[in-house]
């Protein structure tokens, strides 16, 4: 259920705590959008064989790493300073956990950029790019939605992301099967197909992280930890 | 540097806090050893083509997931009840972060168990098993050492784990290269080799998680966050 920010963030320990939390959330979103851009650029570098852009993604990963440490620090300072009650505390800790997911999405973007460099040297767009484009659009949308769900505290949107992840997993399986067939047809395809395989795997992992972020958003809104809970049960909770 | 537990855990907010922390750490280790056993069993299931054992690993993953939630809960309760100062707070949060790593090692063990099932149906031990055995021994040792480093607050041992990870990365690259060659020799090898490839990737990820845990141990002992810091710089810190 979508709740307005006041009902979730309001009525907490103190006005100061709410201000701290708003600032923490803003920084989280800033990192989130940066990581999303990293992923967009990594995919574009792959598709266009653009080594320069791939290098840029690899370099920018240091900034993402730095943001992770900064937000962690900020969260610890808020807890130490405001000593929030258990429920508020969980909100701050949820942000720290989601930051770890974002950092890993950044790592996957870096891996894709590396594969983009390797593949651009091979010339000639290999098979599997159609699938890469399709799945990357899908997980980028999931990541965007997860960030939006966080920004708007929209647990229905978060639930939708979790459902999309099941579809991405199927798409991923189909894509790897088709690449496997292509490898079997001609052994000269193997090396390039393997690079594409790793890209697909990285994208599938991004979907998982978007899903993790959504789980935390649902927890923030509904107050229940739904990690490791079947989606059907979560559906009942959110639709309540 | 190895420090005795008193110098790290002593002198904190309160006697009660220290007791809570000791209990949290014990639970963390319990989960750590369970995850290590899961990994050991997954590898054994793969090597022996033992589908029964592989199924057991897949089922036990639910227990690992449950432990993660329980330890997280325990950590939040400690923070809310004891309202520790920033330095103590960081110790508790470090445990929560390490628990996330352990949970992911559990996931990798589950993935390996799945591959074990797939491969056991194919009969005939495929190429790459020598490499799998070697790398799995290596990362199991790293995971063990990371847990020991945590138990004994031994930052030198933690640093050693981080250095080992570089070696595992090289071993992993060599193993995938040799599998690639084998796939090129005969297309009938491709499908089985791909399964082994995923196992190797899972093991490489376990090495990364052991490394993450070690980074947190160094932070707990030395008081400095060394995530995203080059190993050489960490070396100076620990040797200080």
Description:
The structure is a homodimer of 240-residue chains. Chain A has 240 residues and is mostly helical. Chain A has one domain: Phosphate transport system protein phou homolog 2, domain 2 (Methane Monooxygenase Hydroxylase, Chain G, domain 1), CATH 1.20.58.220. Helix content of chain A is 85%, strand content 0%. Chain A is built from 8 helices and no strands. The first copy, chain A, has helices at residues 5-9, 15-48, 51-82, 86-122, 129-152, 155-185, 190-222, 231-239. The longest helix of chain A has 37 residues, at 86-122. Chain A is globular, with a radius of gyration of 19 Å. Chain A starts with a helix and ends with a helix. The model of chain A has no long low-confidence stretch (mean pLDDT 91). At the A-B interface, α3, α4, α6 and α7 of A face α3, α4, α6 and α7 of B.
- Biggest interface in this structure? A-B, 33 and 34 residues
CATH class of chain A: Mainly Alpha
Q: Report the principal-axis shape of chain A.
A: globular
Rg from Cα of chain A: 19 Å
CA distance, first residue to last residue of chain A: 8 Å
- What level of helicity do the residues of chain A show? over 70%
For the record, the count of structural domains of chain A works out to 1
- Unreliable residue stretches of chain A: none
Instruction: Estimate the mean pLDDT confidence of chain A.
Output: 91
Order of helices and strands of chain A: HHHHHHHH
CATH names the topology of chain A as: Methane Monooxygenase Hydroxylase, Chain G, domain 1
Assign the structural class of chain A, choosing from mainly alpha, mainly beta, alpha/beta, alpha+beta, or little secondary structure.
mainly alpha
Largest sheet of chain A: none
User: Helical stretch count of chain A?
Assistant: 8
Q: Tell me the total number of β-strands of chain A.
A: 0
CATH architecture of chain A: Up-down Bundle
Described by its quaternary structure, the protein is homodimer
């Amino acid at each position: 259920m979508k709740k307005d920010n006041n009902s979730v963030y309001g009525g907490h320990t103190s006005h100061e705590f709410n201000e701290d939390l708003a600032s923490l959330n803003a920084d989280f979103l800033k990192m989130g959008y940066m990581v999303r851009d990293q992923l967009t650029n990594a995919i574009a570098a792959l598709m266009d064989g653009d080594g320069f852009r791939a290098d840029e993604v690899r370099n920018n990963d240091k900034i993402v790493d730095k943001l992770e440490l900064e937000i962690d620090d900020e969260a610890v300072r808020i807890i130490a300073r405001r000593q929030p009650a258990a429920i508020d505390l969980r909100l701050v800790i949820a942000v720290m956990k989601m930051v770890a997911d974002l950092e890993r999405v950044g790592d996957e973007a870096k891996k894709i950029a590396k594969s983009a460099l390797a593949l651009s040297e091979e010339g000639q767009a290999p098979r599997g790019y159609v699938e890469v484009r399709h799945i990357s659009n899908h997980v980028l949308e999931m990541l965007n939605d997860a960030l939006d769900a966080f920004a708007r505290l929209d647990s229905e949107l978060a639930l939708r992301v979790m459902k999309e992840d099941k579809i991405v997993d199927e798409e991923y399986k189909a894509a790897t099967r088709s690449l496997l067939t292509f490898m079997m047809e001609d052994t000269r395809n193997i090396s390039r197909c393997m690079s594409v395989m790793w890209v697909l795997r990285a994208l599938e992992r991004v979907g998982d992280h978007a899903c993790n972020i959504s789980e935390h958003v649902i927890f923030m809104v509904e107050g229940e930890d739904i990690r490791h809970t079947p989606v059907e049960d979560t559906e009942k909770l959110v639709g309540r």
